[in-house]
Give the backbone structure.
Amino acid sequence: MGLKPKACSVICSLLLVLLTVSLQSSSAGTCKFESLTPCLPAYQGGKPTSSCCAALKSQLSCFCSFASNPLYKSYIYSSSGHKVVAACGLKYPSC
């Protein structure tokens, strides 16, 4: 079973963003987008794991900061992002 081109594109884009973030030497306090990596399978349509939900909970206060960054904005405001947050029983922040 191969990945559909759109799914592959989304995966590659997210991995590129995560790689870019991990290569940056500075970080904004405790806000680390790369800590959301455990949520990648859920973002692609799977069920969020407990580690994903824990990561979301720890970074939820950073979502508005992430949303103001062009690298992350599309992921933060995506329908997949909203679904994962809801599946973890968290309330999506208003920015």
User: Anything to note?
Assistant: Confidence is low (pLDDT under 50) at residues 22-28. Residues 5-23 form the longest helix (19 residues). Residues 15 and 37 are 9 Å apart (CA to CA).
